[in-house]
Design brief:
Elements lengths: L2 H8 L21 E12 L6 E12 L3 E5 L6 H8 L7 E6 L2 E2 L5 H9 L1 E4 L11 H11 L5 H14 L15 H14 L4 E5 L7 H24 L8 E5 L3 H7 L2 E6 L2 E6 L1 H9 L8 H11 L11
Parallel strand pairs: 3-8, 3-9, 6-7, 7-8
Antiparallel strand pairs: 1-2, 1-4, 4-5, 9-10
Helix pairs in contact: 4-5, 4-6, 5-6, 7-8, 9-10
The structure holds adenosine-5'-diphosphate (ADP) and magnesium ion (MG).
């Protein structure tokens, strides 16, 4: 990636100077790793029916750190599961690396999924294994049998996340923040092209949250450096972080997409969100800008309905 590419990434997706946007995206280009086009996804039938996504269109650019924000229950986790092909859209298309997921058979989906790594909300380390065995797990699952190579990768990944020499520890000996680090080491062990983080700081205090946000950035930059150093030169790293923590979003993101009421209501760099949160909005401000402002400021009053 060149500095020019970075400059392009930093530009708002729309040109009118506000973060709020609607509408669909055109078919993705080579620089899009993931494209959602008018995706609808609901669950249940009749009075039990919920439809969290009602026409979501978004692009994830190669090499960027994209953060998806939105109130609880807006379909952020559902969005990640659609990206992984763990859920199918009711209508619309999800394209990963130029391939419409609905057209893939289970083997093709498996190949694509190997390039992606998901860090779940809970972290979900295997309690019965040591830290080292946890990190080695995806390598073994991918068929690696060379124990010396596995040990080297495990040590390197643990060092990368700031947990050197913890291979022999049991996961129960780790603090909450250390568990997150170990889970991150496991999720990058298989050297993914796309890392998905679902609420990586939930349940952590603000200082630890900030440390994890730093770690996400560091991990992204280290993997990017590895890609740049790769002689084949055709790898990339893209990070997608789902969070409802504006501080984390603001820190980590090249670009923030906000979901609400089944749609994308914001798509802009963090500075644009901060601006909407701090300045007085003009009288004719659009609904989406009002929603973003309300969310950024964490206020109950506004167009976003709160369920108590
Ligand atoms: N597998 C499922 N079955 C039924 N409902 C689901 C399922 N997954 C998510 N939902 C519902 O979809 C909505 C969005 O969920 P989710 O994506 O988890 O929200 P969040 O933005 O908090 O991550 C919620 O109302 C949730 O109950
Ligand atoms: Mg969620």
């Amino acid at each position: 990636m060149t500095p020019d590419d970075l400059a392009t990434l930093a530009k708002p997706a729309n040109g009118n100077g506000t973060a709020g946007r609607t509408g669909s995206v055109a078919a993705g280009d080579r620089d899009d790793v993931i494209v959602f086009d008018n995706v609808h996804k609901g669950f249940g039938v009749g009075s039990k029916r919920t439809e969290p996504l009602r026409g979501v269109s978004l692009r994830v650019r190669r090499g960027e750190r994209l953060v998806i924000i939105g109130p609880s229950g807006t379909g952020k986790s559902v969005t990640l599961r659609l990206m992984l092909g763990l859920l199918d859209p009711d209508s619309g298309t999800v394209t990963v690396e130029g391939r419409d997921l609905s057209g893939l058979d289970i083997d093709e989906l498996g190949v694509l999924r190997k390039r992606m790594s998901m860090l779940f909300q809970s972290g979900a380390l295997f309690d019965s294994m040591t830290v080292g065995e946890n990190v080695a797990f995806p390598l073994r699952a991918a068929g690696e049998r060379d124990e010396a190579k596995i040990a080297k990768t495990v040590a390197e990944k643990l060092r990368q996340v700031g947990l050197p020499d913890t291979e022999e520890k049991m996961t129960s000996e780790l603090s909450g923040g250390m568990k997150k680090r170990a889970a991150l080491a496991r999720s990058i062990a298989s050297r993914p092209d796309i890392i998905l983080y679902d609420e990586p700081t939930t349940g952590l205090d603000p200082i630890m949250s900030d440390a994890i946000a730093e770690l996400i950035i560091e991990t992204h930059e280290k993997l990017r450096q590895e890609c740049d150093d790769d002689p084949e030169g055709n790898r990339s790293i893209t990070s997608i972080v789902v969070t409802h923590d504006m501080h984390v979003a603001s820190k980590v993101a090249d670009r923030i997409v906000m979901l609400y009421d089944g749609r994308v209501v914001g798509d802009a760099p963090p500075g644009e969100y901060r601006r909407l949160g701090s300045n007085v909005l003009p009288k004719d401000a659009g609904k989406h800008d009002q929603m973003i402002r309300q969310f950024v400021r964490g206020e109950a009053a506004g167009p976003i309905r709160t369920v108590t």
